[in-house]
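Last lecture ended with a question: if I hand you only a sequence, what can you say about the shape of the protein? Today we answer it with a concrete record. The protein is Enoyl-CoA hydratase domain-containing protein 3, mitochondrial. Below, first the input exactly as provided, then the predicted structure, then a couple of comments.
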Amino acid sequence: FAAEGPVFCSGHDLKELSNEDDVKHHSQVFELCAEVMTLIQKLPVPVIAKVNGLATAAGCQLVASCDIAVASEKSQFATPGVNIGLFCSTPAVALGRSLPRKVALEMLFTGEPLSAHEALMHGLVIKVVPKDKLEVETMKISQKICESSKSVLALGKATFYRQITQDLDTAYKMTTKVMVDNLTLRDGQEGIEAFIQKRKPVWSH
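The predicted structure:
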C-alpha cells in the first residue's frame, strides 16, 4: 500500500459519520473497514505498507494491519479520535496487536502522534529511511520475498496469524503439524534438495 501526497491515509471521512446518516449506514462503514483490515491478513501473499506522510485513525489501523511497514523519516502515526469525541476503538484492535499495550494506550488516550523513529522503536514499522530512499528500500524487501515459494509463503503467513492468538502448547501442536504438511509440498522438498545439492531452488510458481 502506498499513497500520493503528504498524507498516507487519514482514515474515515467524518462527513460520512454525522447524524445526517443513520445507524445502519454507520455500521456498514465500520464493517467494511473491518473486512478490509482482516482481508489483508487472510491474503496468501505478504502485504507491505510504504508510508510517506501522516497515517491517522483508520489509516494508522491500516499500517498496523499490514504484514510489514516501511516509513519515510517524515511519517507520523496517530489515533486522534478521542480528541473529537470518537474513540479509535477499531484501530485499537490492530494497534493492540502490533504495539506494546502501554504505547498503544497512550496513543489512543491522548491522540498524540508517534514519529517514524518512535514507530520503529516500538515495532509498528520495520525500517525508517529518507523519503528519496523509500521506494528502493520497500522494493528490496518485496523482491527478497518474491524469491521464495509462493505456496510456502502462503502457508507460513496463514500459520503465523493462527498461532499468534493461541496458547503456547496449542501453538506448538498446530505448527508442528504444519511443518510436517510443509514437507509434503513440492516446494518443501525442492528447497531441501536444492540446499543439499548447493544450488538455487526452482519453485513451482
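Comments.
1. Residues 148-197 form a domain with the Lyase 2-enoyl-coa Hydratase; Chain  A, domain 2 fold (CATH 1.10.12.10).
2. The first strand starts at residue 7 and ends at 9.
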